[in-house]
Amino acid sequence: MKRFRIGVHVVPRRGILDPQGQAVAEALHTLGFGGVETVHVGRHIVVDVAAAKRNMAEESVRDMCRRLLANPVTEDFEIATVEAL
Amino acid sequence: MKFGIVTFPGSNCDYDAFHAVVDELGEEAVYLWHKNHDLAGVDVVVLPGGFSYGDYLRAGAIARFSPIMTEVIAHAERGGPVLAVCNGFQIACEAGLLPGALLRNSNLRFQSDWVRLRVENADTMFTEKYEAGSVLRIPIAHGEGRYTAGEDVLDRLEGEGQVIFRYVNASGDVDPAANPNGSMRGIAGIVNGGGNVLGMMPHPERAVDPLLGSTDGRGVFESVLARVAA
Q1: Are the CB atoms for A28 and A20 separated by under 8 Å?
Q2: Which candidate from B103, B107, B108 shows the least CB-CB separation from A74?
C-alpha cells in the first residue's frame, strides 16, 4: 500500500447565491482591490489515504466527496493536489 | 401515542420537543440516543433542533450517518411520520428524506426572532388542524436556513402541494422583507412526496404555551396526533 495526501476544493456551485463570497468581494473593493470581480468561499479538505495506486486514491476521495465531503445539491468539488507520501 | 425524540451530540431542542409532547399534549415521549439501532416502537419520530456535531463540515452532514438514521429512514419509507425541525430539517435534507439544502442565511446573521408563516397546504398529516391560508406566529433560531433547490425541484414541490409553510408579512403576503434567511420562494417548510416527513426551520415546539408568547405551533402536533390515532 502506498500513501497519498490529497487536497480537495469544495466550492458553492456557480449560480447559487453566495452571500459570504459577496461580502468578501465587497470588503476587497473597500480595500482598493478594484479588479475583483467575484469571490467564492469554500473549503479545502486534506485527506491522507492509503491505496495501491494513485488513481485509486483519487477515485476513493471523489467517492468521499460525492457521499459526504460535498453537498451534491449546492456544491462542486475538484481534486486540487495529490502528493505521494 | 408515542413520540421518539432523537438526541444527537449537540441537539438542544430535544427537551423543548419533549415538553411540547408530554407536558402540553399529554402524550408519551422517549429520547432516542443517536447511537441506538432501534426506534423503541415509537409512532412519530422527531428530529429536533440544535447543532449536531457542531455543524462540522455542513449542518446535518455528519448526524445523517448516525446509526439511528438508518432506522429513521426505514420508518419514513414505511410511511411513518417524521417531524424534522431546524437542525432536524438540515439532517433530513442531508439524509435524502427531503429534497434541497439549507444554506447560510443570506444576510450572514444568526436569526433569532418571531416570524409569520402562511399555511400553504392544510391537507397533510401535519397541518390538518390549521385552515389553509392562515398565518401563524412561530419563532426561528438559525444561521443556516436558506432553503435552496433547483428550479425544477421547486416547481415540482409547488405543483404537488409539498410546500407547507412560507414566510409572509403582516398582511399574509410573501415579501422579501419578511423572509428571514433568503429562502427560495419564501419556503419555510416542505413535506416529502409521501407527505409523512415534514421539514421546517421555524420551531413549532417553542410555540405551544401562552407563557412563551404563542400557541400557534400546537397545530403541528395536534394534527399528527389526530392522524396517527385515527
Answers
A1: no
A2: B103
Domain membership of residue B208 as a residue range: 2-229
CATH number at residue A68: 3.30.1280.10
Q: What are phi and psi of A8, to 5 degrees?
A: -120, 135
User: B165-221 pLDDT, tens per residue?
Assistant: 999 999 999 999 999 999 999 999 999 999 999 999 999 999 999 998 999 999 999
Using a CB-CB cut-off of 8 Å, the residues of chain A touching B107 are 19
Catalytic residue among B27, B71, B144, B205: B205
Residues B119, B109: Cα–Cα separation, whole Å: 26
Q: How many domains does chain B have?
A: 1
pTM: 0.94
Domain total of chain A: 1
- Can you spell out the DSSP letters for B141-206? EES--EEE--HHHHHHHHHTT-EEEEEE-TTS---GGG-SS--GGGEEEEE-TTS-EEEESS-GGG
Q: What is the CATH number of the domain that holds B155?
A: 3.40.50.880
What residues make up the domain containing A68? 2-84
The ipTM is 0.86
